[in-house]
Amino acid sequence: MEKAGSRNPGSYRYHKGGMAVIFVTVLAILAAMWFQSRKLHSLISVYRAREASFNDQIREEENRRDQIEQLREYMQTEEYMEQAARERLGMVKENEIVFEESR
Predict the structure, then answer these.
(1) pLDDT tens, 18-54?
(2) How many other C-beta atoms are found inside a 10 Å radius of the C-beta of residue 14?
(3) What sign has the CA pseudo-torsion 35, 41, 45, 46?
(4) How far apart, in whole angstroms, are the C-alpha atoms of residue 26 and residue 22?
């Protein structure tokens, strides 16, 4: 004769094996999710560092752009044109006295 409740579909013993399988499955899913979250946190750290590096590069390029713009504006002034004519073409103003070194 069978023990009372061992084969009864409503008894705890009857569902014990199925509950163990469900428990192990849920545990495996939670472990996988935890490992994936650690991996994602690591990737987020890497991407934040890259973002900071890119932001630094952007600032450097913006500064460079500003310097070039200032140089462009300076190169359009009379002062620059006079300086370039003196240095590159050897030109002098009308009332200037030129001293040359003897060789």
Answers:
(1) 888 999 999 999 999 999 999 999 999 999 999 999 9
(2) 13
(3) positive
(4) 6
